[in-house]
Design goal:
Elements lengths: L1 E6 L8 E6 L2 E7 L22 E3 L5 H4 L2 H6 L5 E5 H32 L10 H9 L1 E4 L5 E4 L2 E7 L7 E9 L2 E7 L22 E5 L13 H15 L3 E4 L5 H15 L9 E5 L1 H10 L9 H8 L10 E4 L2 H9 L4 E5 L9 H8 L6 E4 L8 H6 L4 E4 L2 E4 L3 E4 L9 H9 L7 E5 L3 H15 L3 E2 L6 E3 L5 E3 L9 H26 L5 H18 L2
Parallel strand pairs: 3-4, 4-5, 5-6, 10-11, 11-20, 12-15, 12-16, 13-14, 13-15, 16-19, 20-21
Antiparallel strand pairs: 1-2, 1-22, 2-3, 7-8, 8-9, 9-10, 17-18, 22-23
């Protein structure tokens, strides 16, 4: 009985873990890597046809995106997930296949002219259709047995509609072990969905660490933040461009904007338009308005029961075709544009950035995590110019970050979730975090909770009987570690500076004596560190 870490090891994306027990091969997630590749992920150590079944935590592509590739290589077992995850996968995986096929067509046109070999896509739409046929939807807290000697149950992870933490109870030679996968754990008090459910028992835990070394701070007033950003941008005559993940974050933003419109919080711009410019986001938004009552929080349930659609309002425009997308920037009226991808690495958002980054009137508002090495992270870190479609674009627009709306739990929330276990687990495995974050959070778990914790590299194998490491993974980086580590630490410093500005703004209107003391403290700190 052992566990192998294959993806999202010292990285934030590409989640994939395999359990071997009593002749079974169980895969938990099969995600696609997104953003820069820091470590070389090892391959799944068995033929895909030998995998008995897959357990899927949620629909995001970094957890589900390589399932069709697994099917294309021979996997034919069942894929278990929640009903909401199944519905979201039906659009996300089809969208991913479309991108794969389009990219292959484009590359093959170039390859043919150059006399090079044909490029084969990772998977096709046909592979996706076969994958969707294998999905078996389950409910939260519904214990099921996908194979003899194995019991599984899902609980709400609070990260995305249908996201789940997974408990796997395995019996081998009369010995029973419970392995708990956190999945991506959500932030608390977010629109539409419930807070993460806390676990009670596990022998081994695999926990994410996206924000394992950071705190979100006090819960800000999302409505106030967003309405102020829209107000000052519209008053300048600009657009608010929001790079947003098509599923989850886009719908949360629509929920907030509906409230802003309902309360008339943006003055002198009555009836302002809000464009959702992403076919995937449009399809997902329609799923959110479907029969998903089992997944909503109490506030959203109350709205639905009173006949109010929580994410639809006057002025909402859903853009599907490329022609509809192009017309958005032809309209000179100030507007809000929600477009994918959330990290600005691909998709229609790059066209909207090209049209708005150079405009001092406009604002680019980030409302989600930006991985190191992405265009989104570069803009947050103060890039003066960026290259889009071969053209150098000056960054003159306001770059804003909506504080505290992250879809991931912060360090204290992760510790609180883990600390709810009645008894210490034999070992905690930390993954799904940037390189240093994984290491730091594993140390924090030991220091704060006294739990044995490690951050495995890809290829690491551990015994699920003793907890000892059987095979050490590959810790060799694909790029120079010193440069990367310095960049990561500097990013934390930049984030701390942004938080300080936020704190300063919150003290506007305070007593002069207190403000003067605060200013002296900041100046003293600046004098100490100024080169």
């Amino acid at each position: 009985m052992d566990i192998s870490f294959l993806g999202a090891a010292h990285e934030v994306t590409g989640s994939c873990t395999m359990i071997r027990a009593d002749g079974l091969h169980i895969l938990v997630d099969c995600g696609m890597e997104q953003g820069p590749n820091i470590y070389e992920n090892c391959d799944i150590p068995v033929n895909p046809s030998e995998i008995d079944f897959v357990l899927l935590t949620h629909a995001h592509i970094d957890h589900s995106g390589k399932l069709p590739a697994l099917v294309a290589k021979g996997f034919s077992g069942k894929i278990y997930c929640t009903e909401a995850t199944a519905k979201l996968c039906s659009i996300m995986l089809r969208d991913s296949a479309h991108i794969q096929e389009f990219e292959a067509e484009w590359k093959n046109r170039k390859a043919k002219r150059a006399g090079e070999a044909e490029y084969v896509p990772l998977y096709t739409m046909n592979d996706v259709e076969k994958t969707l046929e294998l999905i078996v939807p389950m409910s939260y807290h519904q214990e099921f047995s996908p194979a003899e000697g194995v019991k599984v149950s899902f609980s709400d992870a609070g990260h995305l509609l249908g996201s789940a933490s997974i408990t796997i109870e395995i019996t081998e030679n009369s010995e029973v072990k419970k392995v708990l996968f956190s999945g991506d754990l959500g932030n608390v008090s977010r629109p539409l969905i419930r807070d993460p459910e806390k676990p009670s028992e596990a022998d081994f835990v695999v926990i994410e660490s996206t924000y394992g070394n950071r705190l979100h701070g006090d819960r800000p007033d999302y409505i106030k933040q967003l309405s102020e950003i829209i107000q000052r941008t519209f008053d300048r005559g600009g657009n608010v461009v929001i790079p947003s993940f098509a599923i989850g974050r886009t719908q949360e933003m629509l929920y907030l904007i509906r409230i802003i419109k309902e309360k008339g919080l943006v003055k002198n711009h009555d009836g302002f338009k809000v464009y959702v410019d992403s076919p995937l986001a449009v399809a997902a938004t329609n799923i959110y308005t479907d029969d998903m009552l089992d997944y909503y929080d109490s506030e959203t349930l109350s709205l639905v029961k009173n006949g109010i659609n929580p994410i639809v309002f006057g002025g909402l425009k859903l853009s599907v075709t490329s022609d509809e997308s192009k017309l958005i920037n032809a309209d000179s009226e100030p507007k809000v544009i929600l477009s994918a991808s959330g990290m600005c690495e691909a998709g229609r958002i790059r066209h909207h950035l090209k049209h708005n980054l150079w405009r001092k009137e406009s604002t680019v508002l980030f409302v989600g995590y930006q991985s190191d090495g992405t265009l989104g992270r570069s803009l947050i870190n103060g890039a003066k110019t960026v290259k889009l479609f071969g053209e150098r674009i000056a960054v003159e627009a306001e770059i804003a970050v909506m504080e505290g709306i992250s879809g991931h739990a912060d360090m204290n929330m992760l510790l609180g979730w883990l600390g709810s276990l009645k008894n210490p687990p034999q070992k905690v495995f930390v993954n799904h975090g940037e390189d240093l974050t994984c290491e730091e959070f594993s140390k924090t778990i030991f220091e704060k909770l006294g739990f044995s914790a490690e951050a495995p590299y890809s290829g690491s194998v551990y015994s699920l009987e003793t907890g000892e490491c059987l095979v050490k993974g590959n810790s060799a980086r694909l790029e120079k570690p010193v440069q990367k580590r310095a960049s990561t630490v500097f990013d934390r410093l930049v984030a701390a500076g942004k938080r300080l500005l936020s704190v300063i703004e919150k003290n506007r209107g305070g007593a002069n004596k207190d403000l003067a003391k605060f200013a002296d403290q900041i100046n003293s700190l600046s004098d100490k560190w100024e080169p």
